[in-house]
Amino acid sequence: MIRVRPAEQAGTAGKPGSRFTGDAFAYLTLPATDGVTINTVTFAPAARTHWHSHERGQILQVLSGRGLIQTRGEEPLVLRQGDTVWIPPGETHWHGAAPDSSLTHTAISLGVTDWLEPVVDYPGAAQAEETSS
Amino acid sequence: MIRVRPAEQAGTAGKPGSRFTGDAFAYLTLPATDGVTINTVTFAPAARTHWHSHERGQILQVLSGRGLIQTRGEEPLVLRQGDTVWIPPGETHWHGAAPDSSLTHTAISLGVTDWLEPVVDYPGAAQAEETSS
């Protein structure tokens, strides 16, 4: 068993890896252990991950702010404080902040992450506003 | 992808299943999906799970209160607000409240849970006090 206390978490000053667009900041809660990695990530407005998928899926827990998440081929969904999201194994998606809000979420990633290209069709403010729920 | 909002979570009025000692209350955040289940559980003082293990491991995130967790054959560890715990696949353990405090944690369980016998050697208040860290 591994117990990690808040003071032991590794904070980063800049981008959590190179697979992000815009400014993002991460605290590494659980370094990769038995294939499980836990990060708490803050995205500046309009910042987001590249498209990617997780070998065994991912859980997101939204701590604050407002964001967006999109599965390839589907419409984006809004993320709000208190939301929990399950992304199934192998499902290609991206997540990040709304155009006009920061977003902080905990990300529990299961298995290897397969990183893909940047998100170029990021929704503008008007479109994100229409994505009301 | 499944997005669960707080208002959609299923609260229970009593024990989350029959594999607990004492009073415990659960909100089901993510019903079992692709083998992943997320519960937020509150234990009254001295309440705890039976011994058990998880096929693919478990993550605990302590939201409030103070608790205890023990791996079979090891000393108990104290759980405090902000702690994150990783329990590896197949590791037999129990978790619950301290003798003199409630505990609320989110539990992310991976795969099938194998339930075992009740915990009979639950630490008394004095012993839990000595388990200082």
UniProtKB/TrEMBL annotation, chains A, B:
Pfam families: Cupin_2. Gene3D superfamilies: Jelly Rolls. Residues 40-99 form the Cupin type-2 domain. CDD domains: cupin_HNL-like. It comes from the Bacteria. PANTHER family: BLL4564 PROTEIN (PTHR43698:SF1), RIBD C-TERMINAL DOMAIN CONTAINING PROTEIN (PTHR43698). This is Cupin type-2 domain-containing protein. It comes from Tersicoccus solisilvae.
